[in-house]
Design a protein that fits this description.
Layout: H1 2-11, H2 14-17, E1 26-31, H3 36-39, H4 43-51, E2 55-62, H5 78-95, E3 101-105, H6 117-130, E4 134-137, H7 142-145, H8 147-161, E5 170-174, H9 178-186, H10 193-196, E6 208-211, H11 214-224, H12 233-244, E7 249-254
């Protein structure tokens, strides 16, 4: 009888035998520029979930063609856009996630449209095609206030709060805890202005705290070095320290609607 039962199991499709069937998620991180996944400290989280078998995508809104740096010697425009596209591919490959989804919009242009229609249409198309279960993006702070970052945040949020995505889709915003950021600035750990000018978030709002492994962090730092056009050696080292500053914990702020309907502001 037992042998007959085992024989029947072998005839079932493989998916029926997989105890993880249906448990794998589509996770999508959406940022403005190639390298944003590193400075937001999200890349080790992406590496973790890819390692665990989830489908992980990185969506990049702009070509990053204006992000010139003297050490790289690459002029603004198509030359730099091509370099940064290759850097994004290198980073995704190093993290073990899917190839990057490049929306190809102009660097510095996202907030110039009166209705933000170009990025709205492109992201709406991406969401309908890939149907992510989990979305991670910039918080309202935009890190250090970059308008491209903030426009990505508002557009993703606009599309999410419409309620037209899957009912189980979740949205999270990357954030740097104020306590950790304060230690960074008071101890003068950083020389790159963006980290000293960062807009931190109180930990009481960062209620999602994901532990990552040492291997995930190492992958994230290796992936950072793919973005060679953006960081000279000393800035690579500083950004690596920034990525390690949260002690293997990645902090996220969830998008949360009120748990119940209320008809009074003061009660």
């Amino acid at each position: 009888m037992n042998l007959f039962f085992i024989f029947l199991l072998l005839l079932l499709p493989a998916s029926r035998l997989d105890k993880h069937d249906g448990s794998k998620k589509v996770i999508m991180a959406i940022f403005a520029h190639p390298d944003d996944e590193a400075v937001t400290n999200v890349s080790s989280l992406l590496a973790r979930y890819a390692r665990e078998g989830h489908k992980v995508y990185l969506v990049i809104a702009t070509k990053g063609e204006l992000g010139t740096n003297l050490h790289a010697g690459v002029p603004a425009g198509d030359s730099l856009a091509n370099v940064r596209a290759r850097e994004a591919s290198c980073a995704c490959n190093t993290l073990g996630i899917e190839p990057p989804i490049l929306l190809g919009l102009g660097d510095g242009s996202l907030s110039k449209s009166f209705t933000q229609e170009p990025i709205h249409l492109k992201l709406d198309s991406v969401f309908k095609k890939y149907r992510p279960n989990i979305i991670i993006t910039w918080g309202p702070d935009g890190g250090y206030g970059h308008m491209d970052h903030r426009t990505v945040h508002t557009t993703v949020t606009d599309l999410y709060q419409s309620g037209e995505m899957g009912k189980d889709t979740k949205l999270f915003y990357a954030g740097m805890p104020t306590r950790i950021w304060r230690q960074w600035t008071e101890q003068k750990k950083g020389r790159i202005w963006i980290y000293n000018k960062w807009n931190p978030v109180a930990e009481k709002y960062l209620t999602i705290r994901i532990k990552v492994s040492a291997d995930d962090v190492n992958k994230a730092i290796t992936a950072l070095y793919c973005h060679w056009s953006q960081f000279p050696k000393e800035e690579m080292e500083e950004t690596s320290r920034w990525m390690k500053s949260t002690n293997d914990t990645i902090y996220l702020r969830p998008f949360l609607a009120a748990p119940k309907i209320s008809y009074d502001l003061v009660r």
